[in-house]
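Thread: quick sanity check before group meeting

JM: Hey all, I'm pulling together slides for Thursday and realized we never actually wrote out the predicted structure for the chain we discussed last week. Dropping the sequence here so it's in one place. If anyone has concerns about the input, flag it before I start.
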Amino acid sequence: MGALGDAHAADRPSVGLAYSSAARSFVDRHRAEVDHIEIPFELLRHDPRVLDWLGMPPAILHCASLSIAGFRRCSEDTISQIVHFAQRLRTPWIGEHLAFISADRSNAGPRPEEYAPGEPYNIGYTVSPVMNESSVSRIARTLSSYANEFPIPLLIENSPIYFDAPGSAMSQSDFISAICGQTTVGLLLDLAHFVITSRASGFDPFAELDRLPLDRVVEVHISGVDEQGDGSWDNHAKRAPEIVHQLLDHVLQRVTPRAITLEYNWSSRFPEAVLSEELSRVRELCEARRG
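JM (edit): ok, ran it. Output follows.
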């Protein structure tokens, strides 16, 4: 088992699952196969009873509420709640998307949210920002500001890019590298997102991986990818395609992340046999690269 909470004691990654009812049932029956569970802040905010789970493995807190790449700081109430749940879970870090999920109300039309009047407009999905030097500077300032709020490290996760945003002057790899150059932030490398971005942008994902600051990778996400007529899309209800596992092996040849999380959390009927196979496959890759 990987040492989730100790960066120096772990000689292999902790291998775990993103929280779902299927994952919880699997853990209750196959505890030895799961090193950790990753739980979204947004779920805890709406249903803190998840914390009553007696068989919960060591937990990682994941988040999609800080809107790191946005122009407006999230509310102090949200920050205090994230800190509260981080302390309750004893999470070693907080993973957050390198994206914005909200916009100023003044820029989002006159109609308020029915159940959140006066709150920032929620876009409903993590959207990658325009990638240029101005965004790098703004995001670096935001990360430095949040670093003073949280007692543990914050990781940034690469969002999927489905199209080139007007105004972008950098590749995602250069963008992330520039942010890392101005901060001490760690990376949560989502390989399904990386595959989607590579197909939309037309680059070789293996060569592009080597352009990232892989020494900053603390956690890795793997999940499914849907191929549709209009492009590739994230899908947490199917197993990862072969290329995601190949990219994971590529990463493991270069660095040892502290955690690898399988995000198979969109279906309550995700087959237990597939979860076992995927967990075993990841562990076999890790063991092969240790040798």
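AS: nice. Residues 14-290 form a domain with the TIM Barrel fold (CATH 3.20.20.150). The chain has nine helices and twelve strands.
JM: adding both to the slides.
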